Amino acid sequence: MRVLIVDDERNIRTSLKKYLGLEHIESVDVENGEAALNALLNEQFDAVILDLKLPGINGQEVLQWMQTHGIPSPVIMISAHGQINDAVNALKCGAQDYLVKPFDPAELVIKLRSLAEKEQDKKQNNTLEPTANAAQKENAVIGNAPAMRLLSRQIDRIAATDVTILITGESGTGKEISAREIHARGLLPSAPFVAVNIGGIHEGLIESELFGHEKGAFTGATSRKIGLFELAGRGTLFLDEIGEMPMPLQVKLLRVLQERKIRRLGGIADISVNARIISATNRNLELMIKEGKFREDLYYRLNVFRLELPPLRERAEDIPLFCEFLLKKLGSRMGRTAPALSGEALDRLLSYSFPGNIRELENILERALIYSEGAVIKAADLGDLAINVPVKDFPSSLELIEKKAVQEALERCRGNRTKAAQVLGISRKTLLNKIRLYGLH
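Now predict its structure.
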């Protein structure tokens, strides 16, 4: 068993490390949250002993970061007597157990071994997904049309390299899904995949999000913040909507790609970064270069290898496959058995141009699931597919309801977008897109 000890008190780290050694438990100790993130990015641990109060990045933030980045190591939170309520809240946020200082190290060992047994049982109970189902899942993401089979072969060739990739295609064609597929087929699939929508971040905050900042770097910077380049570690950083990046930051991104180093806002030291960079856009970057809106030198740095995703209308043979996959996913989310499509319904979908691509198909099927009754989706359940009208021009009552729900959630959460997304049951990225769609601030 291998354990990570995170505590800012040296005597606690030393005594725990010594006691665990006597119990034949290997351990690594670090003194702050930042060091913990680095250790978790580069090494594997069977459990984490995490102090709640740490300088800079605290224990709660480390726990949240672990969940965001899919790091499965179970966590035992340790806290002082007056912090019990905080420790209980940590349990609600994903910690497996907690101990109050001062605690008996023998009790800690019992808890660690109990966690190890539970993890072992979980591994034994998990059966491998049948090969046919795995292939079906992959094909549902990639598709069987000739253009998508070519794309799959290209992904196979580049996944095992660290080449910088630019993914282009219309909105809704699955650019992030393709980026995740590249990461999953790569050399380090268990490393973090960090995605950021450049167009969804306020211009003044992009630099801090990407590169991080030091305490006191600007008004409101009350603690050090680790940027996304660092959080990605040796994994993948996906820069979606790269065409929305402001010109001043394009220069800084170019420097990162050239030197593989970043500097936090307010910092004085360069930090090496190792993440693979995948960017994506639905804009014409070549035209933007001619218009002086995008740097040509940055374009060539990003466009080392290019993947172009065809629109759904050019791969209609994939529509039945996507429908099957999406109906299963949506049915599971709604707690109902996925219905089948009637022949007439499928014909209507096959004859539709899908200006919103796969994302629009998913929205159509979700609406059809709400309207449908029984085990079959009929053509009438799909609504009117003959009119391709932008939502912003002719908002329906459903869209007005959605806009109001988003607005009320933002007001309830006092503008905190992460909390508002949780209230609405959607991802933060989806919320940012809806804020832009409806012009909310």
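Confidence is low (pLDDT under 50) at residues 126-141, 386-397.
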